[in-house]
Amino acid sequence: QLPTGLYKKVLVILHDSVLPYMNEPTLMMDFLTVAYGIGGAISLLALNGLFILIHQHNLEYPDFYKKLYSLLDPSIYHVKYRARFFHLTDLFLSSSHLPAYLVAAFIKRLARLALTAPPEALLMIIPFLCNLFRRHPACRVLVHRPGGPADMSEDPYVMEEEEPSESRALESSLWEIQSLQNHYHPDVAKAAAVLNQSLSEMEDDISGLLELSAYELFDREVKKKAVDVPLEFEQVRGLFGKKNDIFAGHFSLD
């Protein structure tokens, strides 16, 4: 049992400053699996070490994706370690051998949580979801299903279900992204509108978007050049401006 602050300090450096120098990295299996089960930021930080053990040392973790799915809550779009979490989640969902119901559950849950996410997180998560559709074409039914639910109460997806296979995500539709097409931030609305068209084969590079901050987003808007907005849609003609104005029939300039 370690204090929360110490857990975080250890897990932040474990994957690159400890495991590569151990003769038997598998000795850390119990520590990392326990840390992964604690929840919150500690679970997010434990993902790095677990990924190394799973990928390089054949660690078997039967409920790994179920636990990863349970980590998806509204805080993931706001936490300090958001970039690290989504970088690893992108790796974990990259395999084409994952069942469609599992990937659909992740897509649907991320989209539902996106309804309350800040703009800087939305500009990252929308291309992230598009990449998942490119890797797993069977999930595109979420976008192209005709006659989706009229409102949230009719959506068959069960948000509270902890088991991805029981969430009924494949029976649902991605109305959340359609809602984001009316987002107040124009860049978010433009990004969400991509799903109205056929996706290209090339995946989007999200590496530059993982650490996008609200400050950078605001700074980008401030530095945009102002565009002159016309206030009249009819070209001004004559002294009084409008073409068929009553004054134009009685007055003229020589």
UniProtKB/TrEMBL annotation:
Lineage of the organism: Eukaryota, Metazoa, Chordata, Craniata, Vertebrata
Annotated family: Belongs to the CBF/MAK21 family.
Membrane listed as a keyword: yes
Domain CCAAT-binding factor: 43-192
Cited Pfam families: CBF
Domain of life assignment: Eukaryota
The name this protein goes by in its record: NOC4L protein
TM region(s), chain numbering: 31-54, 85-107
